[in-house]
Here is the input.
Amino acid sequence: MYDFDTITDRSGTYAIKWDYAHGDLPMWVADMDFRTAPEVEAAIVERARHGIYGYTDLPDEWRNAYAGWWERRHGLKIDPEWLVFCTGVVPAISSMVRKLTTPAEKVLVQPPVYNVFWNCIENSGRVPLESPLVLKDGRYEMDFEDLDAKLADPQCTLMLLCNPQNPSGRIWTREELAKVGELAAKHGVTVISDEIHCDLCDPGFEYVPFASVSELCRDISVTCVSPTKTFNLAGLNSSAVFAADERLCHKVWRGINTDDVGEPGAFAVPATIAAFEKGEPWLKELCAYIAENKRLLGEFLAANIPEIKLIEGHATYLCWLDIRKLTEDDAAFQKFLRKNAKLFVSAGSAYGAAGKGFLRINMACPKALVKDGLERMRKGAEAWKKGAR
Here is the structure.
């Protein structure tokens, strides 16, 4: 029903992904090369036709759209009053780091993980504390013994959880999330759960909201959510956070408003309402299309570049590639691919020292671009193996 095969020319739109690529095939930054759901586009166009784009309030429809989506799709009942608007998940995390911790306190992260987490921590005058994930039998797991020890540090007061995990696409189980909640509560640590990729799961797989696991997990956490990754709306600057605990929710609201990142633009509200109320059929087809792209990637690597292995992950449109049999120097290989194959992917070491020897690649594009990118990777790997530098 929906067209994901047509290649849309994004030149002239100031798109970071393509303008920054300078002629390379960009498969790096996390936005999609698909037009958003027609129902969302129609809502934006209708709002644009009005011609006046003044200050925008948050109606009940906005809150109810979020609450309805999470209950319908993910089985989590959200009180609409818990929801706090923010211009983005990153501004929200930065604000919460500043509001929920004091300078020089430690914030736990689990690398390899979204690289901007470090910016949110360090730019706020806090200290990252790492509890690296463990790659076991081709997929990532949490090291709960290490996590327990790190959370026990009295200087550690906050944990950033990536659920589902970026860059690996790992969907954490209910049991794993319950253990995180137990350890965090044991040591008096608040959990911020970044769940921006939650709707982008392969058919047959479903993510578990951290706040849905138990009352304990719900009460010690703040969850970051948004339609932007799901519906390719990052440029609209629209997200929300929610916390069930009244005092925690108030602190988060005060921080976001103190930092002046709590006011929606004119298009954020109608786009969000349309996405959550009308976008489900489009999303179902999108997830199936992306899963097929990821399947093509895995099969192509196994048949043509066996030195590169696709790490198991069933969420997000981002794929995590183990290139250590080809080279440990992911940064050098990433630059080599860009220079010699005109393929722009992300170096794994950008996601922490635990990402050394890996690459991240974006599969959210028409199949013609996927096949082009895979062929470029094959040629680049062959040239690398022959010693060309």
Q: What stands out?
A: The domain at 52-278 is CATH 3.40.640.10 (Aspartate Aminotransferase; domain 2). The first helix runs from residue 16 to 19. The first strand starts at residue 25 and ends at 26. The chain has two domains: 16-38+280-385, 52-278.
